[in-house]
């Protein structure tokens, strides 16, 4: 069997030579019949797929195959594949928006690619060149760009997925893999009409633990939460607030990073989010909120709807359910919100814990002023209405077809 090791950006450095992923070798076969695009008001998150997908295969003897864009169809997997038997699947969640110039835009895709590579390494999957994966994503967007909705707060969701496809039941790393990239047009994640959501704090089941995979985007992080979520929904809550440890540290809200806003005695506000201790996913939106808060307080930008003199002291710090209860009782807990690619920013209005509810202040439209400022600014950057650093990456150009267009 060939051997390889990963270098800085995921490229292959073979002890015996194997081919790296190469987007310049992409072949494109277009679907004979394009699907009709359903009305946006019928969309639910992830329930509609576009016409095409990217597929590439890794074999330990030869390396990465030439990638293909082809009509979307089921994959062929052996039932003894590693991803089926042992959950060796990692993925990313990204979005493409159309800007005022009519061109698609990605939001900080370099962060997604770096996280995908880290997740693959954590699951001992074959490495890949992240620049080439991003190039393939851009090509797929160009092919299926008609699916990108033109409505505000609507986007094309992008799901690059890497699956271990080694056939066999021995408990070992997968030296075979399939990379599949597919697209799904989407509107708002929560169909709540802008209202805040409720969360149930859970302490008898955990999402992640020290030394586990909580800091990576791997498939097996998500399915164990389905049963607790069903239980919470039966009690009238929308999502889970995951707690950890005897002191019941707050970690994440559903599949979102969580932020809370606390009034300080000097009139400023603290913005807290749990630190990246290995149990917290390093979210792209999370990082963006922290960066924008720092820029606003430093006077580099003015967040929408906030006074320039409004100082937001953002920090990564541990806080517990006891802290939330105390801040709420003292009238200092002003806002709580979840942050993630799918939701962008969503307000949390109620936190259930041991049969009692912490009720946060109500705000017109659901979002409080701090959460709304972040959501508005991030969405403006994503939709190309504002430019901030290099966060918005324009997808431009045409595909070079090297197979017959059908």
TrEMBL record:
Pfam families named among the record's database cross-references: Aminotran_4 (PF01063)
EC number: 2.6.1.42
One example of a Gene Ontology biological process annotation: L-leucine biosynthetic process
Catalytic activity field: L-leucine + 2-oxoglutarate = 4-methyl-2-oxopentanoate + L-glutamate; L-isoleucine + 2-oxoglutarate = (S)-3-methyl-2-oxopentanoate + L-glutamate; L-valine + 2-oxoglutarate = 3-methyl-2-oxobutanoate + L-glutamate
Gene3D superfamilies in the cross-refs: 3.30.470.10, D-amino Acid Aminotransferase, subunit A, domain 2
Modification type N6-(pyridoxal phosphate)lysine: residues: 217
Cofactors that this protein relies on: pyridoxal 5'-phosphate
GO cellular component: mitochondrion
InterPro entries to which the protein is assigned, alphabetical: Aminotrans_IV (IPR001544), Aminotrans_IV_CS (IPR018300), Aminotransferase-like (IPR036038), B_amino_transII (IPR005786), BCAT-like_C (IPR043132), BCAT-like_N (IPR043131), BCAT_family (IPR033939)
Keywords associated with the record: Amino-acid biosynthesis, Aminotransferase, Branched-chain amino acid biosynthesis, Pyridoxal phosphate, Transferase
GO molecular function annotations of the record: L-isoleucine-2-oxoglutarate transaminase activity; L-leucine-2-oxoglutarate transaminase activity; L-valine-2-oxoglutarate transaminase activity
Family: Belongs to the class-IV pyridoxal-phosphate-dependent aminotransferase family.
Name of the protein in question: Branched-chain-amino-acid aminotransferase
